[in-house]
Amino acid sequence: MRIDMRSDTVTKPTEAMRKAMYEAEVGDDNPREDPTVLKLEEMAAERLGKEAAILVTSGTQGNQVAILSQTGRGDEIIVEAESHIVMLEGAAHAVLAGVQPRQVPGKRGVMNPDDVRAAIRPFIDPHYPKTAMICVENTHNFHGGCIVPQDNLKALREIAQEKGIRMHMDGARVFNAAIASGIPASEITQYVDTVQVCFTKGLGAPVGSILAGDAETINTARHWRKRLGGTLRQAGIVAAPMVVALNEMVDRLAEDHANAKFLAEGLANIEGIDIDASQIDTNMVYFKVSKEGMTEMDLLVACYHEGVLGGMLAPGSIRFVTHKDVNREEIQQALQVVSRLMKEKVTAS
Ligand code: TLP
């Protein structure tokens, strides 16, 4: 048995994706001659309500190209304190763009607009860096896959506009937010200048992300992508499964969300597991162990030996992520394993 819930990044391409890769019409994407890439970029821009879009190799590259295209060296970017950009991208914003992050702690991934306003520097004194950008993450990974409400995005947008700064969304899982809330992706992204969307997570494509925004910014992004070595040649091979993902894999995310809810409710019924199932918005289930003599690491390792794979992004909580390659029956099996291990009171040492 192997039930892999370490991440939705472990999803394998579907048959339709493999077939699309095989049959993809391709060209050189450097001079923009790959018809499949052009089709994908047009479709994605439309779906995200933006003028233009660019294929990038990964979510990290999409976020970094967005920062590079909209900030200058020595600028400051406002990020939620536990956002992926600042926690899990190898400090690329500092290394590549030379920007400094200003970490604003949020509640369930949501930054209070008053805190954001207070964090924006008056650019009147050489002591201060220039605040160039507000970054939001939707859904928010570290905070449990939660959805950033529209009124919060709107309030942040108003601040960004008033201060003349840019706004970027790490929308790695923005389609999860769209499906779970019933709000079209283009309505969610209306408040940001640029949005990065991963196709390798719940959508199941093997490679690729999209960065969408206004035509001028995306043109600048083409230069930065090139500098980062992310401009590919016959990239239609990569873009073809992403087209399939957009057409076929978005609506089914609802199934992953229902499975996450089911998993969380099952975990909540197990003695010694600490989780509030009402807080599950999308496909991520974070939980703690509250049993004397047993740690999260003990349970994670014991689960691993039983073929139930989870992850630990930060010490102190286990993350299970639901996705298309784990079905309801497997989730039931995983729950049985966790329930038994909790009774056995396992230790990793
Ligand atoms: N997240 C991965 C790991 O990096 C932890 C995961 O398993 O959740 N933004 C967000 C919100 C992400 O969750 C991720 C990946 C990225 C950006 C980066 O995407 P990639 O891995 O394509 O560079």
From TrEMBL:
Its cofactor is pyridoxal 5'-phosphate. InterPro entries: ArAA_b-elim_lyase/Thr_aldolase, Low_specificity_L-TA-like, PyrdxlP-dep_Trfase, PyrdxlP-dep_Trfase_major, PyrdxlP-dep_Trfase_small. Gene3D superfamilies: Aspartate Aminotransferase, domain 1 (3.90.1150.10), Type I PLP-dependent aspartate aminotransferase-like (Major domain) (3.40.640.10). Keywords: Pyridoxal phosphate. Residues 4-288 form the Aromatic amino acid beta-eliminating lyase/threonine aldolase domain. CDD domains: TA_like (cd06502). The keyword Zinc does not apply. It holds the Pfam family Beta_elim_lyase. Belongs to the threonine aldolase family. PANTHER family: L-THREONINE ALDOLASE (PTHR48097:SF9), L-THREONINE ALDOLASE-RELATED (PTHR48097). This is Threonine aldolase family protein. It comes from Tumebacillus lipolyticus.
